[in-house]
Specification:
Largest sheet: 5 strands, mixed
Radius of gyration: 24 Å
Number of strands: 5
Strand order of the largest sheet: 1-3-2-4-5
Shape: elongated
Structural class: alpha/beta
Length: 280
């Protein structure tokens, strides 16, 4: 290992490089062996995430064949075995192959990366309706960490209210498997509806004889015009008249708006309650 934060450790220097160092920052120890196939899957993921973390934790690699006493000392009975140290003691661990998304969660619980902190900044901007600033923040994260699920989701959320539903839909249609995937799926019907509206234009002659279709398009148009409360009122009114309209499209669009605003936003709380009243 060539990085200060990705190192090989042995029985001779473990106490210094892991236990003592963990007083300064978390140290994640990867117990592995050359003959272990699963280790060759986990190792590169840990190394990639350690590089992404840019110093928020140290990754220490321990070859159990060359350091059997460390394996005994820390009760390593199966590999790969990954143990996180803070303040000189084990605070969390896992054994065996795990998907990258779960490893990210494991590491995030230890120490948020710079990208994680920037994600929180972007989320704050979304809550305040600062769409363009949020977009810039999420794009900066993706420049440093391409395909970061949190940044991709945030970028899609910031694009939709600005009228860039097509670009947002492209992100959502190829969204990586992650804990953010469900949120991306909730957001997709809104992006699809706005993208369709953009393609056909707001004034659709076919809607003249279909008041609900006209009301639906008008509600979508109000979203990109920045009048989200009026858009939500329009969608609720459609649901009151026909709960099954377009197989529940107005409800799904509303849920997408809630996803953009966030669960703690006053509008989300207000209109989620109203939606429940209308539906039930």
């Amino acid at each position: 290992m060539s990085s200060e934060n990705i190192i090989n450790v042995s029985e001779e220097d473990f106490d210094i490089q892991v236990l003592a160092y963990s007083q300064q920052m978390p140290v994640v120890v990867d117990f592995w062996a050359e003959w272990c196939g699963p280790c060759k899957l986990i190792g590169p993921i840990l190394e990639k995430l350690a590089q992404e973390a840019q110093g928020s934790f140290r990754l220490a690699k321990v070859d159990v064949d060359e350091n059997p006493n460390l394996a005994i000392r820390y009760a390593v009975r199966s590999i790969p075995s990954v143990k996180a140290f803070q303040d000189g003691r084990i605070v969390s661990e896992f054994v065996g192959v795990q998907p990258e998304s779960r490893i990210r969660e494991f590491l995030r619980a230890l120490a948020p990366t710079r990208a994680d902190l920037a994600i929180e900044k972007g989320k704050s901007m979304l809550e305040k309706g600062q769409w363009k600033s949020a977009e810039a923040t999420f794009r900066e994260i993706l420049d440093d960490v391409p395909h970061h699920p949190g940044a991709l989701l945030g970028l899609a959320k910031s694009l939709i209210p600005q009228g860039y539903a097509g670009e947002a839909l492209g992100i959502l249609n190829s969204f990586p498997t992650s804990r953010e995937f469900r949120s991306a799926e909730v957001l997709k019907p809104l992006a699809e509806a706005l993208s369709d509206l953009d393609k056909k234009g707001f004034l659709d002659e076919k809607n003249e004889d279909d008041p609900l279709a006209a009301a639906f398009d008008r509600s979508l148009w109000l979203i990109v015009r920045g009048n989200i409360p009026a858009a939500m009122d329009g969608l609720l009114d459609i649901i009151r008249q026909d709960k099954r309209y377009r197989e529940g499209a107005p409800r799904r669009v509303l849920l997408g708006i809630f996803e953009i605003l966030g669960e703690e936003h006053a509008l989300t709380r207000q209109y989620r309650n109203e939606l429940a009243t209308v539906l039930f």
